[in-house]
C-alpha cells in the first residue's frame, strides 16, 4: 500500500509544482503592467446593457475588457469568440466581461447601427461600449487614454480597479485563463477595495499601422 500511495502522491505534488511554475512563467511573459489604477471608460453609448457600465461599478470583480473593431480580422476570428466563451463560462458575480468597440479607421462603415447588426449576427451577449469619438483625432478617447496599439487589445483589471494586463494581439486561452485565475485567487481587504492609485496607463509602440491575422495596429 505504501509504495502505491507514494506513486499517487508524487505525481500530485509534481502537478501542483508544475501548475504553480506555469502560472509564474506565463504571468512573466504576458504584457503585465505596474499596478496602476485603470482609467475610467469614455463611451458614447452601450449595447447589451440597460445602463452604461463603469469600472467603478465593477469593483470587487476581475474585469476582462476586449477592445475590437468589426473590420479587424484578428478580432472576428479569435478575440471576439474567446471573449464570448469567457462570458459564458465564468461566474458573472466574480468576472465581468465587457467589449469596447474602438474605431480608429473606416469610421463611416462602423457606426452604431452596423455594430447592432454585427452583435446580433455573432450572438454577442456581453455588454459592449462604444468608444467615444475624438473630434481632434481619428483615435477615440478610451483607446487614446489607454495608449492602445490597435485591435484586438485585451485588458484585465483586478478586484481593486488596477490595471494588470494590457496586450495587443491575440492572447492564448491558456495565458488568459491562468491570468484570470491568478487575479481571482488574490485576497483583498475592504480597505484595498476602497483605495486606488491616480497613475495612468501607458503602452507605446513605434510599429507601422495596418492589419494582419493577429490584429489591426494604429
UniProtKB/TrEMBL annotation:
<dbReference type="GO" id="GO:0016209">
    <property type="term" value="F:antioxidant activity"/>
</dbReference>
<dbReference type="GO" id="GO:0016491">
    <property type="term" value="F:oxidoreductase activity"/>
</dbReference>
<feature type="domain" description="Alkyl hydroperoxide reductase subunit C/ Thiol specific antioxidant">
    <location>
        <begin position="50"/>
        <end position="164"/>
    </location>
</feature>
<protein>
    <recommendedName>
        <fullName>Alkyl hydroperoxide reductase subunit C/ Thiol specific antioxidant domain-containing protein</fullName>
    </recommendedName>
</protein>
<dbReference type="Pfam" id="PF00578">
    <property type="entry name" value="AhpC-TSA"/>
</dbReference>
<feature type="compositionally biased region" description="Polar residues">
    <location>
        <begin position="197"/>
        <end position="208"/>
    </location>
</feature>
<feature type="region of interest" description="Disordered">
    <location>
        <begin position="191"/>
        <end position="218"/>
    </location>
</feature>
<dbReference type="InterPro" id="IPR050553">
    <property type="entry name" value="Thioredoxin_ResA/DsbE_sf"/>
</dbReference>
<dbReference type="InterPro" id="IPR036249">
    <property type="entry name" value="Thioredoxin-like_sf"/>
</dbReference>
<dbReference type="InterPro" id="IPR000866">
    <property type="entry name" value="AhpC/TSA"/>
</dbReference>
